[in-house]
Request: fold
Amino acid sequence: MRTVLITGASRGIGAACAKAFAAKGDRVILNYKTSRQKAETLAEELNGIALCADISDSKQVKTMFQEINTRYGGVDILVNNAGIAHFSMFDAMTDEDWNNVLSTNLTGAFYCIREALPFMIHQKKGAIINISSIWGICGASCEVAYSAAKAGLIGMTKALAKEVGPSGISVNCVAPGVIDTDMNRTLSEETMQALEEETPLGRMGTAEEIANTVVYLAEDCHFMTGQILSPNGGLVI
Ligand code: NAP
Reply:
């Protein structure tokens, strides 16, 4: 049985990934930061476990992995999904805003990968999937820190794929378009409508559609590493 850790699995895309892996018979570990009730309820439903850790804090990530390693030896599949958005003009961003966005979306993935790798290297097998965004590919106005962090994940994916490929580990990236989750609830109705209209398929994507892409990349039969798959309805071609 494969052990899968999904960061930020209490809601949205992470929760959909947990469901999709569990449906394939995998053991799922649902990481969360604040939504304890949601994460625990879903973990129970999926016969998995929920673990609290702020992934932007290396000590909390270490503690989470100590628990995982004691219980299961390590993780076979790591999905770096936890993320936060931040909308503001570039010159209005404080040091704290910038650091928050970078440490959650980019550095958190570094902390998790660093803890997950020793077991994968020992097994000579493993899959790492980083959740970036179309904005990491083409940049979003008023989301510069987010775009920078998501572009960083793409660079990290490509470089790390070269480094750990010889150890039998694949590193890939999913860069979704606009997806119907809590993350976009703060956007105005007009902005959402405009984004849907700009999307050739004419709608937002679903968390389940992104989860299907993640599950696909976790299979080790595709000869796929260092790649960026972008389920985005044609918004970025
Ligand atoms: P969401 O519904 O807002 O859920 C975010 C998840 O991340 C929650 O489970 C949250 O946990 C967790 N999280 C946030 N900060 C964390 C931290 N420091 N430590 C641990 N967990 C943390 O977001 P989503 O739309 O599903 O997004 C998931 C990923 O997809 C993100 O990386 C996002 O950037 C990316 N993405 C989303 C879209 C989109 O349109 N929705 C598009 C492209 C890419 P709590 O519930 O405990 O706070």
Observations:
- The pocket of NAP is lined by residues 7-14, 31-35, 54-56, 81-84, 104, 131, 133, 176, 178-179, 181-184 (CB under 6 Å).
- The first strand starts at residue 3 and ends at 6.
- The CA atoms of residues 176 and 231 lie 5 Å apart.
- Residues 3-229 form a domain with the Rossmann fold fold (CATH 3.40.50.720).
